[in-house]
Amino acid sequence: MKLIGVYLSPYVRRVAAALISRGLPYEHEPVNGYREYETASRYNPVGKVPSLVLDDGEILIDSGAIIDYLNELMPSAPLIPAGSSARRATLKLAAIGYGVAEQGIRLYGGGRSTAPETDTKRWRAQIQGGLRALDEAAREGGLLRAKPLDAAAITAVVAVELLALLHPDIELLPAFPALAALAAEQRDAAPFAQTRPTL
After folding, report:
1. Where in the chain is the domain with CATH 1.20.1050.10?
2. Global pTM?
3. Which are the contacts of 111, defined by CB distance < 8 A and separation ≥ 6?
4. How is residue 132 annotated by DSSP?
5. pLDDT tens digit sequence for 178-187
């Protein structure tokens, strides 16, 4: 398999972390979808990353679809648990982590442009709301404490580390101690240490 995209993208990084967490080997082609649109569009018609090129040449796009595929490959260590209630809970938390990352990117870009103050306030509020929900799920016995890490926990850690990189002014530890502890515990684990982005 070959993963297309840079690890600075939280969507690419969560796929890479999922691959590593399940011991699935892959090649990495670090294509920046913004700067290398033509290359990215060879894999995805809209030029977005990630894309995952399978060994038979099939190309999967979108991190959610890719993680769903990886989940099929690893029934003994699922990224998304079976069973409607557990599945829904995991997908909901993954969506919250995805949203935190997405709004963190918007805030980063908006903070460097002329985005209206109402937008930046809304993005910050959305980030804070998502972090509160993830913090509750990261408490001892919470859903983000699943072993091995599932799609929700992987996405949450990726989102927290992205926020720390893009917005060092958003203090996590005092306001969200369980989530900060989860991210700190995973910091040196292979899925995250091997995919850590830089600006």
Report:
1. 84-193
2. 0.94
3. 120
4. H
5. 999 999 999 9
